[in-house]
Amino acid sequence: MRQITATSQTLCMTAEIVSIGNELMDGFTIDTHAATMSRILAECGVDCHHRQTVRDDWEVLVAALKEAIGRSDVVITIGGLGPTGDDLTREAIAAALGDEMVHEAEFEERLRKFFESRKMIYTEAQKKQTMRPASGRLIDNPNGTAPGLVCEKDGKTVIALPGPRGEFVPMSEGFVREFLSQRTGGVVIVSRTLRLCGIGESQAEVRIKDLMYQENPRVAPYAQPAEVHLRVTAKGATREDALAVLEPTEQKIRAVLGEFVFGVDKTTLEEAVLALLRARKQTVSVAESLTGGEMGARFTSVPGASDTFLGGVISYTSAVKESCLGVTPETLSEHGPVSEATAREMAEGVRSRLGSTYGLSFTGNAGPTSEMDGKPVGLAYIAIAGPEGTVCEEFKFHGTREDVRRRCTQSALVSLRRILLAPN
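-> structure tokens emitted (424 positions)
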């Protein structure tokens, strides 16, 4: 198989990703490969302007490829390189480029030996994988029988990659990354995401608006449930150069939004809260009703959580609230299980019984029924009992049952973090 040596080209390359497969269009498979490729393109200094997803349909695929080739410098296809009848990518690329198909005899010989070494039957259907468009070259696939493909014609480049993850990822991180990095002259892109809580997206943007219009580095906000992510992306000739561009902007953001920044990149809010508790040599326990153990699961997902998270009680019924947490029958009778009074006694009960510095409690109606003892869907009470007393907040969340539960635990973490950061 011939080696591919990329020539130099303009730095401002644009790219398009075309994902191929009925399983993607029918919703049975989530297209995570396109996200992976978008990241690789960005890290190689290539701007991804479009993404398409199409069925295993000849006319649709050829039309999509012609459109992509017409408006982008680089087109990357994912899937459709196998030996079966619905694997149409090679032939469709040839049609879109106006190429004839060419047989690679050397690769077919390698493929036959591969099958023989594994005592597998080589069929004529396999020969399909040995074909390429006239302007193309095969890319070695060390983890599968279907080779990739790169075609260069009339100033355009088409790269075809197989769909199976074990084949796609190594080829993307290896050949594609190296090929594109050479094409862009070695431009390096570095991104860092500052994760914020306790402030809304619009509030954060107003405070750093002067930084939002920079070209290098770029600052882009992304709203998440009870969080805001600020992604800072810088370009440079080397990683060190890109970091030198990025870091002054990061410091400016931290200077303005300091207390709201709880982490960087993959840091979760539960990690940040447990780190604060650990630094203070304090502990936490949870009493969960509507969240059904989700808060405990988030805490225990953090390695080493046992030195700060002591445990919890899933008190889904009133009887368990009474027997395990000490919520009084009078409180439950007068106020009901979904109430501020019950949330307070749950938090105080779990704190007392487990001996933790703080006790978190959750009670409410996550749905899907519209009413529960007169309580609307989304109504939640979150209480935090601690050395300075007990505080309780009422929330009205929207969304599915899962949305309500997630937002409930997220809001509790924001509130506990605020308490931990407050001056003594």
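The first helix runs from residue 22 to 25.
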